[in-house]
Write a structure and sequence with these properties.
single chain; 302 residues; alpha/beta; 9 helices; zinc; aspartic-type endopeptidase activity; zinc ion binding; metal-binding; Znf_CCHC
Length: 302
């Protein structure tokens, strides 16, 4: 296959003529009536010097905002990056995250991925679990001016965002605080208070959803499904035990507390823990491209 560098001594017509002869000798179909991917890839792969630099320049101009969705941006990025030679994995990740919208870019940069496969997978997961509400809003309403913060049922808002924007910690809406939230159930209790429920003991037989990353050796004879997900604006790992009856969450992640209750847990070896007060909460959990609203969880240190 001939090479083309794009210098003044190179003739593009000669390059294309030599390329056609090469395609015919290898029985590679080309032209308007033939599949374009293979001959185009061969042509681009043999660009050198200034001619090859064109693809790098195009890569620098690639932006997610120029596409209707993240999936289209990823597809365009992959199409270009596979044709760029002599670029390290770190540089590829840098170019990928540089073209992302600000919110996703910050999350990808924070995790310092070493290859584009992991960076792209995380970006797609984050986009699915955090942008659903804003997509529905944008599809049904044309907003003339951008709003400082859009809150939807599938939009996660961190505690820091609530403090900055003067929002309620429970419903994420302005105008009131957690103590006077009209959407908060009447039975809500402050965190850490049992409120006359000390005589109630609930037995949790096993674990179903656990936002804590556990070593498999700690869970003998258990078949666990693991998913990367999100809850309360944080990336979490979801562990699913098909034989479980309750859901637990590591303390410090949940935001919507319902009540305090005394709980004892049956361990996998059949023994039980002493009863202690634990917080019950209702949260939205996202993983595997799905959104689960009002998931009942109990805070438990594992």
């Amino acid at each position: 296959m001939p090479k083309f560098s794009g210098t003044k001594d190179d003739d593009v017509a000669d390059y294309l003529f030599s390329a056609k002869l090469y395609f015919e000798s290898k029985n590679i179909k080309y032209g308007a009536d033939s599949p374009q991917q293979r001959p185009l890839s061969l042509l681009v792969a043999n660009l050198k010097g200034p001619a090859a630099a064109w693809y790098r320049e195009y890569l620098l101009l690639l932006r997610q905002n120029n596409f209707t969705c993240l999936e289209d941006y990823v597809s365009a990025f992959r199409h270009i990056i596979c044709k760029v030679e002599e670029m390290s994995d770190i540089d590829k990740v840098m170019h990928f995250q540089k073209g992302l919208v600000v919110e996703i870019k910050q999350e990808v940069k924070l995790r310092q991925f070493r290859n584009t496969t992991d960076a792209i997978s995380f970006a797609l997961m984050y986009d699915r679990t955090h942008a659903l509400g804003s997509r529905r809003t944008n599809s049904s309403h044309h907003v003339e001016e951008p709003t400082p913060l859009e809150i939807g049922s599938s939009r996660f808002v961190s505690r820091e965002e609530c403090l900055r924007s003067n929002l309620c910690f429970y419903c994420k809406e302005p105008g009131h605080r957690l103590a006077t939230c009209p959407k908060r159930p009447a039975r809500n209790n402050p965190r850490g208070s049992s409120h006359n429920r000390d005589d109630h003991v609930e037995v949790i037989n096993s674990l179903q959803l656990n936002m804590v990353s556990l070593d498999a050796k700690l869970l003998p004879n258990r078949e666990l499904l693991r998913f990367e997900g999100a809850m309360s604006g944080q990336a979490v790992q979801v562990l699913i035990d098909s034989g479980a009856e309750r859901n637990i969450v590591r303390p410090g992640i949940a935001q919507h507390y319902v009540e305090a209750t005394k709980v004892t847990v049956e361990r996998f070896d059949g023994t039980t823990t002493p009863a202690r007060t634990a917080q019950q909460c209702l949260e939205t959990v996202c993983f595997d491209g799905r959104v689960f609203n009002d998931v009942s969880l109990i805070e438990w240190e594992v």
